[in-house]
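Supplementary Note 3. Input sequence used for the single-chain structure prediction.
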Amino acid sequence: MMFVTNFADPAVVLPLAIIAAVMLAFTGWWRGAALWLAVVGATLGTMAVLKIALFACGPMRFGGLVQSPSGHTASAAIIYGGLAALVARRYGAGVIPAFLPAPMAAALIGFSRMTLDAHTLPEVVIGGLVGCAGALALLLLAGTPPPRLKLPRLLGPALVVVVVMHGYQLHAEAELHALVVHYRWIASFCGARGAP
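The predicted structure, written as discrete structure tokens, is reproduced below.
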């Protein structure tokens, strides 16, 4: 399962997000490139804020214990689901069929995260919801990609990034946790739930 989960590691998805934006801009679809960066940034930023809040304030209950929502799951939905949505829209798919790869990617990576005991079901669900919301926002805001956006131009470089970076790991969660430990004042926003 580690092989599967590594497809959504920050070491893979961050360069993939950047190369996708470059390729969208390279085709002249500036609106798509800007929206891609904005929505991916907002989605991953939301996950970072949720993780920091839970590290600082302690776990919460959401159908089970939630200590750290799954960033891998959110990343899979927005990056792979978002790219698939843009490609599907480019080739005439409706909104619903174009959206379906996002929850599918979230389910696959979420399952791998639970199998590895990296996250609980509620943590995976939260990550999946945030990532799928990002993919849906991208789909609704970007509109139909222009005809000059060709599948090989977008997916060729993306595939190279995935192949080269797969297996590397960035320990982003550890860095966020260290941030909370170093800047103890973050816990002051928690009120009565403050960090132990």
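The chain has one domain: 2-193. The first strand starts at residue 60 and ends at 61.
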